[in-house]
# Entry
Amino acid sequence: MNKYFFLFFFIGLLNISDAYSQRLISSDGSSNLNRKENDSLPSNETKVILSGKTKYTDYKIFSHNRDTTYIDTTLTLQKEYKFNYLRSDNFELLAFHNQGQTFNNLGYSFSNLKNLPDIGFTAKQFSYFDIEDIKYYEVPTTTSEILYRTGLQQGQVLDALFTLNFSKRLNVSLSYKGLRSLGAYRRSLVSNGNFRGTFQYRTTDNRYEIKGHMTSQDFFHQENGGLTTDALQNFIEEDPNFDDRARLDVNLNDAESQFDSNRFYIEHSYKLLANKDTINDKDFSNLKIGHVFNNETKNYRFDQATTTTAIFGSANATDASDNIAESTITDNELNLEFNSKYVLGKFKAKANLTSYSYGYDTILNRNSDINKLKLEGNAISFGADWNAKIKNFQLNANASVTPGAGRLAGNHLKGEAIFEKDSVFALKGSLLISSKSPNFNTLLHQSSYDDYNWQNDTFSNVNTRDLGFSFASKWINADFNFTNIDNYTYFDENNTPQQSDNQIIYLKVKANREFKLGKFALDNTAMYQNVSSGSSIFRVPEFVTRNTFYYTDEWFKGKAMLVNMGVTFKYFTKYNANAYNPLIAEFTLQNTDEIGFPTFDVFFNARVRRTRLFIKVDNVTSSLSKKNYFSAPNYPYRDFTVRFGLVWNWFI
# Structure
């Protein structure tokens, strides 16, 4: 897929749209307690509506689980936190110096685990769009959005959306996010692409509904293996001869990695029985049969012109020309759903037939004792979903079990209860119990390097239990998670996968509070973590904090521009952060380096009508501070960097 074709296509399409766009006016609106997660509109912001018969609530965004938000053109502090390549708040992540590379973890979340194992190579999947990340739309007029952000040294990010309704019942959307960024250090070029196409349709009587999407995603990275020992010393000692970071030597000069994926997803249903509430003219009882189909292929390869580097050990490559690790998962679900105002909530019973294949086409190492090229199999699972609303309580639960002894065997249970008191506060409790196989690349992996070939047939399922509570209000937002993990699977200091015999006991508490005085505000987020068991293999900083002091005002006659500017301080305590291994695209244990440092970022953001402008200076004090800032051992964090970008919406 030619990413440049999509870039030029969207730029041209959006420019045409702007010629026909209508002027937007403002109207006050209500608050949303979940605004931090959904990025909806806070109570002190104006909500944008179209002049005429359309308003902002007509421009709907639907999540995979059918939660509804609206297209938002406001400017808030949350928009500043989300103006990055991931377009999400990365408070619990530590970015590498070049955008689009990868992230080290400052915290972990286990409340939304998937039912099935994945291919692995997790360092390449931070910007991957899963099924749950795909958005669907319903808009009264043709709608477009474009995000532009400058890259590092050379390059840029462009994320473009185009969606329209052919009728109220049929919507299609096309989205493409493309990135190319050179980076400041040698061999750190990043070139990523994420294409998404969606549609949804329902018949005039609402008996038949269908939605689906297609994705094509590719992630190309040059891999440099981090700084050499001498270059690392030159960086730490601030040798002025190496202020140009491209002069610093790196461990790999001819290596690159490629992670690709394609997915086709379709979900449709038909109402067998339906009754009408004659007063409200709504369905109050129906029996619905549904089918879900998903086919997803992922593959990863690491290429190196020569295999003489010492950081990976000795190599004994075969004559194989194809070193791709590939996984394919095909899932068919048949479900039966019933809901009624006389029965507590909505109930869905489902059965799934899943087939999987992961592996290689040939042996890649002459010294390998691997006797199995692929992991393959089929599995049948059974499950149910339940959703109910009782006054101020919302109850959600889903469960599934996959019997047998195969690699997909396991179980999954998730339940949550939400209590919402008008617009005052919301309280949520959740429980997750999961048992599933470790990722496929921990079970089978091949490489031309001797130390990177393994076949683990004895690994057991990873068993995870997570208990969570969250509280959202106008005064404070807080989250509490307590997690237990048995058979935790990780990569040790020798870069090989291991399963722990000891239980991981992990506590995470996070709180956010904002203080306002006139046009000034101080936003504070703090996170405390404790690993009471298994801290030698499960490593996180004890304390992470982010504090933003900012100023908000409307400038010029007629309040033509809304301005938001300030400084963000972020700090995390020192810990043995995991090392990055580019060959296996995973983070591994290391015991030699502790990482923990403060950063100051300065930003100036503005909104003019529907356009939001962003200017940001990363690590503004880097020239004054010690060179102890690293994203992972041997991988320095970014120096003083100026970024510019914008987000622009068009409504025809």
